[in-house]
Structures are given as structure tokens and as C-alpha cells.
Amino acid sequence: MIILKSERDLEAMRPACVVAATVLNDVAAFIQPGVSTKQVDEFAASRIKQLGARSAFLGYRKYPCHTCISVNDQVVHGLAGTRVLQFGDIVSLDVGVIHNGFIGDTARTLAVGGCGVLAQRLMDVTEKGLYLGIAQARAGGKVSDISRAIQDYVEGNGFNVVREFVGHGVGRSMHEDPQIPNFTDGKPSPKLRAGMTLAIEPMVNAGGPEVKMLNDGWTAVTKDGSLSAHFEHTVLVTESEPEILTCLEKVSLK
Ligand code: MF3
Ligand code: CO
Ligand code: CO
Question: Does domain 7-244 have CATH number 3.90.230.10?
């Protein structure tokens, strides 16, 4: 069941998304060589609290951290711990907050200090893939239009989308219908309607698309050890241009 948001719902949800975006920005600025992932998570927790929100992740299916911090070959759901970030690492940060009863969910991969050309290209392609997907989030289209735009661009650049994790509707719950795969599978796909709020989130591997789980029960890593990147926005479908709710500045999708 897909829940359409009313104007009143959106009045509550927009600020939740702004909080998520603000925290992600601030955490990104906090990251530098020498900080541990635990310090990053604690910093995020303090910013979330200062902004009057709560982590949407902590306690979700017993998830133990405030954010997801996935380094290098880690794809998603990396757990904060004693690992110290090194110059040249790439870090995928995923921030989800609850505020006013609604959730904002957003992620980005960034380099710690700097990174190699492959890592930079992987991040650029993943981010552009996200924006190409978002540009398809229009009433009258289908979820598969989003999926196809992302997959075509990513594969056209020699990388692969992860199959095991997908984007999703988001609202009062973190994971609502519909699922938004980053690939097409020929199955019937829901129609996009104004008032849908969608978390669109390509996860892209520099090598093969396969992932495996670490023994911590959460962290997904690439099977072949290749680098992975992840970008995510919460987006409102309208009759015209999609509205990126987790963006602090208006971006042009043209
Ligand atoms: N934020 C992730 C997503 O984008 C989900 C995190 S689940 C958690 O859908 F358990 F790790 F919190
Ligand atoms: Co997320
Ligand atoms: Co999400």
C-alpha cells in the first residue's frame, strides 16, 4: 500500500528532511583522516539531538548505531566502531532522522581528505545516477523509469548496481511501499503519483554487483572487494518537477 502525503503531512515531513540533510552536511564536514567511525557516529548523534530529532536507525530491527558508516568495499549498513578513517578512504554516510513524526533519509559518499581517480569516478557516477533517477520521479511515470535511468547510466559507465538493497517509500515509517530497485526486472511497476515520498538510493560497485554480509549481521560488503558508493535523497513526486526534500539548496535537474 502506497501512502500519499497530504500538504499537512508535508508540512511536518519537510523539516524532518531538512534536519537529515543538515546532519549529513555537518557530519561530512567533521570527517577527516584520524577520526574513528565511532566518533563520527557520536558527532552525528549530538547534531541530531541539537536539532530536536531522533535517529531513525538506532533500534530499527535492533540496529546499534545512529548512522550507517560504510568504508571502501562496505556497501551499506556499516557499523560505527574503533576503525580509524585514513586519507584516501571513501565513506558512505547514511543519515535517517525522525522529526515531527516523519522520517528524512539521505546518504552520500565522500573521500577522506582525498582519493584515487577510480574512487572519484565511482562517486561521481553514483551521484549523477541518483539525479538522473530523481529526474524521472514525476506523476504519470512509473517506478521502473527511475530504476532504468539509474541502471543505464551506471552500467554505461562500466560500474554495477547492487540488487540486494533498494530504495523505498518513506514517511511515518522508514520503509514504505513501493520498493525502488536500481535495476529493472521486467515486472509490473507501480505508477508514480503526486504526493508520493520516495527514498531513491543507488548503491554502485566499481566491480561486480554481488554483495556479502559480514559476521556483525549488518555490514554488507562487495563480494570481490571492489569499492562501493551510495547516494540517497528523499524526494516528493509532484505533477511537475520532483522536489528533493533532503537538499538544502535547490538543484537544477536539467
Ligand atoms: N537508511 C537505510 C536506507 O536508506 C536503512 C538503514 S536500516 C538500519 O534505507 F537499520 F541500518 F538503520
Ligand atoms: Co538511508
Ligand atoms: Co533509504
Answer: yes
